[in-house]
Amino acid sequence: MTDERYLKRTIVKEVVSSRYLPEGSRNLRVYLPPGYNELLSYPVVYCQDGEQFFNFGRIATTANQLILDEGIEPFIIVGVDVDLQHRTSEYAPNGDRHQAYVSFFGEELIPFIEDKYPIRRESESRILAGDSLGGSVSFLIALAFPNLFHQIISLSGAYYPATRKIAEETGDLSALVLYMIVGLQETAFKSDHGVYDFVEMNRDMRAILERKGASTIYGEHDGDHVWGFWQPYIPEALRSFLQSES
Fold first, then answer.
1. Is 172 domain-assigned?
2. What stretches of the chain show up as alpha helix (H) in DSSP?
3. What residue intervals traverse the membrane (predicted)?
C-alpha cells in the first residue's frame, strides 16, 4: 500500500506563452518538492508527455518517496503537455512542427520556468525525460541546446532512422549522459508509420552514442512498450542523475 506521505504532492498548473507554437501557448504541470522554499535552489526534470508522466508514470509520487525516504536532494519536475494529435509532428525530427517545438523548449519554456522558480542554471541541474518519441525528442533538444542540457532519461526511445542519422552526423557527443531502457518484448511495435524492433533500434542508438563519446546507463528488461513497464524504472532513472543529500 502506498504511504500517504507520498500522495501529498504539490502540483501547480502553468501556461507558457509561445511565439513558435501555432496555438500560442502550452500547458505545463510543475511538481514542487516537500519543504519547497523559494530561497533555496533546485535541480529540475523536464518531462515530455507531461500528463502521462504524472498520471501513468507516477513521477510526482516517486519523487516524494525518493526525497522523503532516500534522502535524494529535493528537485522540481516540469511536465510539458502535448496534444496527441500533434505529438509525432512535434517530437519526430521530420515532423512539420518539430523545429517550432524544439525552439519553444529551449528559448521559451526554460526562461519561463527559470524566471518563475528557483532553478539552478548549470546544465548539470537539468534533466530531460521522455518515453518513446519523447525520448528521441529529448535527445534532439539536447543537441539543439548543448549549453542547457546533457542528461537524458530515455524510456524505450523511438530512435527511428532519421534520428539515428542525425546522431551519426553529429560530432563529439562526449558531454551527453543517457539513461536508456528498452523492453525485450518490444521487437515488433506498431507505430504510426510501420512496425519496428525497438530492441535493435536502441542497441543501434547506444552503439552510435558510445562511438561518439557519450556515456550510457543501458538496460534491456522484460517488458513491452507501455507505462506498466517504464514506471518501475523511473526511480532508478532519477537516482542516476540526482544526488543524495547525505
1. no
2. 4-7, 50-55, 59-70, 87-91, 98-104, 110-116, 133-144, 161-169, 198-211, 227-230, 234-241
3. none
Residue 25's domain is classified under what CATH number?
3.40.50.1820
Decide if 205 is inside a domain: no
Name the domain count of the chain.
1
Each residue's pLDDT tens digit, 124-157: 999 999 999 999 999 999 999 999 999 999 999 9
Angle at 137 between CA 134 and CA 140, to 5 degrees: 155
For the chain, what's the residue count? 246
Tell me 94's DSSP state.
Answer: T
The arithmetic mean of pLDDT across residues 95-122, rounded, is 97
pTM of the complete model: 0.95
User: Largest Cα–Cα distance in the chain?
Assistant: 50
Residue 140 — φ and ψ, nearest 5°? -70, -35
